[in-house]
């Protein structure tokens, strides 16, 4: 989820020859600690987790006996495949909603004068990086029976009595995740939109495009890389979140993250949990690559 | 932009940011409330009793201390690892450089759920007992990318001619590093450290899996929520929000200062 604060440097490592300097010993001294740490605490754990997903459980023990039963279980147990589909749907809905809500406001921010723009961006970063758990918890207070939403609707006369239908269900998860993830969509959108020179939009208008047409055929295609990064941020976090459903979702709002997490808690089947994690990650990966292909193909058609 | 369009845009932006800040505002209002029902709107202002209650709450103070220890230690380790990695990548061409970069950055892209489970399995397969140390290790995994990316992007924008000049004028490698390179990195590094500390202080998704009885503040908070909502949790939540806002504002100032 940190993509948005990172500089956009994909895999390019071009640098002039004179910058490459220093001895082999110097490189080893710099590289030793981080390389060891990464191998030990990132690469190895992910590798062992992969092995686990093929191992057998005997009682509370996990024995290194190869099996595919956990992967079969994922595709045959309703709990897993149905929950995955539901979670993919909720994550996609959250992503779509964030995109729709964020696009106009990002365009607004991107076209502000520099000073104002940095204030708006700061206002975006604050909720983005602070108090994840507090904000989820707040929604319980907002959506509850005598919460803010019910009180507001009652006083407006839109409801005759407090409604229970806002909390402890999928709707609550959807609202909470949208609120939490919206900044992760706004920031990458603003950073692509602000790079599009206004003159290009003007040129489209001068050449006779209607504003809406210019928007659809010039602005949107040029902003697709930002759209992709934003969707990626939101989709991954929404899909993997397990605390939001646990706090505001009730039984109706359970997501695949909760199912996986419970395999490491109450249900205690670690290999099954590991397999479910890898399958879900693989499905997410396929969707992301498809989206990337779609957005980048369209973006290539319009270049400036 | 026509006047009307401008007005519509402003209105829409304020609406969106109202939505973004709504949860924090609601929590803060309840924290200052007099009543002990933390859900009934509107809260009955104004009282500081729930903040006083926190000061008497041993478990919360302990969690606060734990959070600071984890944050300070993890950020320090991540600072060393991330800076070393950034220099290695920037200064040297070596085989596997891109892979090394990718793997180090991985925790910025992989959800906490996945990494948390992987670390839990890893620690338990080595019979390592979960403790503050495992929490610190987990935090270092996702804080290192923050430092690495900040330092690397600063190094890439730093003109090599400064260091060249320093060497031409007779400084050795250490002098050049201490007197030229480091001062140029300072504000970026301070900003990145503050930002990393915020992330550590706020993290629960990953911490959840690798923690023992030594709870950090978000986990203590989470534990309380299971017993229902109380105004004390709101007061704690408010403190957490204010603290991270201050940190983020400070981090932002430093990172944009160069």
Description:
The complex is a heterodimer of chains A (304) and B (258). The radius of gyration of chain A is 24 Å and the shape is globular. Chain A is an all-alpha fold and 304 residues long. In chain A, 71% of the residues lie in helices and 2% in strands. Chain A contains 12 helices and 2 strands, in the order αββααααααααααα. Chain A has a domain at 57-129 and 181-301: MetI-like (MetI-like fold, Orthogonal Bundle), CATH 1.10.3720. Chain B has helices spanning 3-31, 49-55, 58-91, 97-105, 112-125, 132-157, 160-168, 173-202, 207-210, 217-225, 231-255. Chain B has a single domain (57-255), classed as Orthogonal Bundle (MetI-like fold), CATH 1.10.3720.10. Chain B is built from 11 helices and no strands. Chain B is globular and about 70 Å long. Chains A and B meet through helix 1, helix 3, helix 4, helix 5 and helix 6 of A and helix 1, helix 3, helix 4, helix 5 and helix 6 of B.
Outline of the structure:
The complex is a heterodimer of chains A (304) and B (258). With 304 residues, chain A is mainly alpha-helical.
What key attributes describe this structure?
heterodimer, A: 304 residues, MetI-like fold, two-stranded antiparallel sheet, 12 helices, 2 strands, globular, disordered N terminus, B: 258 residues, mainly alpha, 76% helix
